[in-house]
């Protein structure tokens, strides 16, 4: 797995955890860390998570051999 794939996957996991917290406890971790949903840092994190999710779609279509071989 390449470095960019690892970064994208990490951001997607952060987004998934944040959505889980929102769904279960109505607590937005990203907003609380970076100063609210309208704060520029929060919006940057939300944007990066969204772009990472779009990038990770490409992982669904890669052959499993490419995903398991080290690079």
The assigned structural class equals mainly alpha
The portion of residues assigned to helices is over 70%
**Biggest β-sheet description:** none
Instruction: Report mean pLDDT, rounded to a whole number.
Output: 91
Number of helices: 4
Whole-angstrom Rg: 14 Å
Low-confidence segments: none
Q: Which percent band covers the strand fraction?
A: under 5%
Q: How many strands appear in the DSSP assignment?
A: 0
Shape: elongated
First and last CA, distance: 6 Å
Q: What is the succession of H and E elements?
A: HHHH
Question: What does this molecule look like?
Answer:
There is one protein chain. With 71 residues, the chain is mainly alpha-helical. It is 77% helix and 0% strand. The protein has helices spanning 3-25, 29-34, 40-60, 64-68. It is elongated, with a radius of gyration of 14 Å. The model has no long low-confidence stretch (mean pLDDT 91).
In short:
This protein has four helices and no strands. The chain is mainly α.
Write the layout of secondary structure elements.
Blueprint lengths: L2 H23 L3 H6 L5 H21 L3 H5 L3
Helix pairs in contact: 1-3
């Amino acid at each position: 797995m390449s470095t960019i794939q690892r970064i994208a996957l990490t951001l997607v996991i952060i987004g998934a955890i944040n959505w889980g917290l929102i769904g279960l406890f109505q607590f937005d971790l990203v907003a609380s860390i970076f100063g609210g949903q309208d704060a520029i840092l929060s919006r940057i994190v939300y944007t990066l998570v969204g772009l990472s999710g779009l990038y990770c779609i490409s992982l669904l279509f890669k052959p499993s051999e490419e995903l398991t071989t080290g690079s």
